[in-house]
Structures are given as C-alpha cells and as structure tokens.
Amino acid sequence: MTTSPFGRALCAMITPFDATGALDLDGAQKLAAHLVAEGCDGLVLSGTTGESPTTGDEEKTALIRAVREAVGDRGTIVAGVGTSDTEHTVRLARAAEQAGADGLLVVTPYYSKPPQDAVEAHFREIAGRSGLPLMLYDIPGRTGTRIEPATMLRLAEHERIVAVKDCAYDALGSSKVIAASGLAYYAGCEEWILPLYAVGGAGFVSTVANVAPRLLRSLLDAYDAGDTARATALHHRVLPLVERMMAAGLPGTVTAKALLGELGLPAGPVRGPLLPATAEQVRALLSAYGTATGERMAADA
Length: 301
Prior knowledge:
The chain is an alpha/beta fold. It is built from twelve helices and eight strands. The protein has one domain: TIM Barrel (Alpha-Beta Barrel), CATH 3.20.20.
C-alpha cells in the first residue's frame, strides 16, 4: 500500500469571510477544528476551493497561522502556494513553512502553458528552495497543462516531491505512476476516490468534505477493513451530492459555502467574480445533502 504522508482524508477547506468579505480568522479556526473532529486527517488551505485567486499573500499566511493554532498536531496543514510565477510560488512556499504548514500544494503553472521540461524545472525549483514536502496538483482542465506521467516519474526522484492531487482523469497514467514510484496519489475529484484508492491511492483531497467529512472518511475506513461492498455502497450514496456540488454548473466553493451556511458553520460570502448560490440552488443542494447524509434541513423539509 502507498503511504499517506499527509493522512488519508484531507479537506480542501473553504476560506471563511465575514459579511463584508474580509478574512474571518475566528471562523476559519472554528471550521478547521470541526473538520478535524469529524474525521479529517488534514486540511488543504488556499486551494481553488479556498479562493486562492482572490486572497492576498498576507491573508494566506495569516490563515495558516490561525488554523495551525486551532488544530495543533491533530491534523496536517497543506498550504496551496501554486501560481504561474516560479519566484512568487517560492516566496509563498517559504512563508507557508514559517507560518507552520506541514506541506505544500503546488499546481501546474496555468495559462502560459509551459512545455514539460519547464513544468519539471518549475517544480524542482520550488522543491529545492523550500524545506517542506510537495504535493503536485495535476488538473489540466483548469491549468491547460498536464503533468505527463513520464514527467511525474522523473519528479518522483526528488526527495521532497512526495504526493499528487490527481484531477487528470487518466486512470491508466495514474496507475502506471503509482505502480512505478513512491508518490502518494490523492483523488482530487470525489467520484475518483474509491477507484483510485483501489489501485493504490493514498486517499482524497475533497471539497465535498467541507460538508460531509465523516461520510467520505467512512468510505476509506470500509475499504481498509476489507468491506468493499460497504465502500461501494457509500461511493454510490455520495454521488448525487458530489454531482450537485461539483458538476451542476456552480463552482465547488460556491456550493460548499452555501451548504456550510445552512449548516450553521463558518463560511460567509464568496469573492468576485464568483456569485452566491440562488435560493433554488440552495434547496437543490440541501436535498442532495439530506439524501447523502440522512440529515434533513429546514429549507429542504
């Protein structure tokens, strides 16, 4: 089995804001503590779900410090530091290390579409200038550039490149890298959690875990216990919520914040250009949430 350097069940945590849109550090601490108590081994901060494109460098660092204080050593913290600028990414990586992060999530440089030798050089530069282990984020649908399996295998030779958040939708490529390297592959798309885990994946980094952490954790637990029938049943059970949150036209940040608000947990508004969910969309989200978790909310009654 592949080791899980940051734990198995990681939540791609939203970044709470107050009513004015300012960073809500108290809310972040409350949400982080709740997620760890509900079964998350770790938290990924300032990823896409955490609205990294619209939070500043100082906000990202303050968020790490606040969450570290809240969870202590009860959960790992992986800080999203990826940008399209190698030097900027290095600065964010060093700031995250000083703020108390355990690891770094580094996405492929986006928009500029660097070739594979440049992609490899980018990741090596960051790994070589930071003291923290890296989780590479392979999501070509957003960045426009794949980390090709051959590139991934070369990068796996670096001592600080230890994991991958996998949103490439390439079962063959991912399986080949898992089989030939020590990289810990985390499913970054919830419908891929069980299939990837079954072929040697390390766990998940999930947006849906903001609202259903225990349900997703229980899927891994069932598989580890040898109860593959229960793991499959839980996979099927969570799919309608996954589809409503991640594939129904709204970004996961919007849907997660909408549900967290209904659950009475810190979330707040989204920052532009994102827009909040409509009342009709919230009702649909609550219905899917109730079906998956067995909890019925007032707006869904």
